[in-house]
Amino acid sequence: MTMSELRLAIAEELRFLLPPRRRTPILTVTWDGTASLGHVVRSAGVPLTEVGALTVNGSPRTPGDRPTRGDLIEVHAVRRPETPPFTPLRFLLDVHLGTLARRLRLLGIDTAYDNDRDDPSLVLQANAEERVLLTQDRGLLHRGNLLSGAFVRGSDPDDQLDDVLRRFAPPLAPWTRCTNCNGELSAVSKEDIQQLLDEGTKISYDAFARCGTCGQVYWPGAHHDRLARIVAEAETIVAEAGSVHGG
Question: Per-residue pLDDT tens for 38-57?
Answer without folding.
Answer: 999 999 999 999 999 999 99
